[in-house]
Amino acid sequence: MPDFNLEPRLKSRAEIDHLFRNGKNIIEYPVKVIFLEQREKGNINLLFSASKKRIRHSVKRNLVKRRMKEAYRKNKHQLTPFDLNEREGLSIGFIYLTSKIEPFVLIEEKIVLILQRLSKLLKTT
Asked: What are phi and psi of 96, to 5 degrees?
């Protein structure tokens, strides 16, 4: 996954808490997205999460997160209407909701739907 480097990740506890408190939700089961426009120009910060409570084994949690990252990487062009030069930055958190490990094709399909909906929402604001 060469396109997904370490820089765009949300790492700060304060930024993550701010995203969860003030962000808006989009749910396409089994993936939920929380997004928030930020003041920093031109950055898209990402967070990928799978609950330890729902998926006990770290190998499976990491598998689900890898699948979400790859689905985002392959379809991030859906956010091209979000012109980063003219708008503020964006924080996006992808959260896996179920304990069942879904196939990549389903996860990718849901992330494509989410990115299309997110693109439409960002065009209107």
From this structure: -85, 125
pTM: 0.88
The CATH number of residue 33's host domain is 3.30.230.10
Cβ(100)–Cβ(29) below 8 Å: no
Say how far apart CA 11 and CA 69 lie, in whole Å: 16
- 48 occurs within a structural domain: yes
For residue range 33-65, what is the model confidence (pLDDT) as tens digits? 999 988 766 678 899 999 999 999 999 999 999
Domain span including residue 54: 13-124
- Domain membership of residue 23 (yes or no) is yes
118 - beta bridge partners? Answer: none
Q: What's the number of domains the chain is made of? A: 1
In the numeric block, the tokens 């992808």 are attached to 94
Query: Does 5 map to a domain?
Result: no
**Backbone dihedral angles phi then psi of residue 10, each to the nearest 5 degrees:** -80, 120
Where does the chain show beta strands of DSSP type E?
Answer: 24-28, 31-41, 44-50, 88-96
- What DSSP designation does 111 have? H
pLDDT digits (tens, 9 = 90+) for 103-113: 999 999 999 99
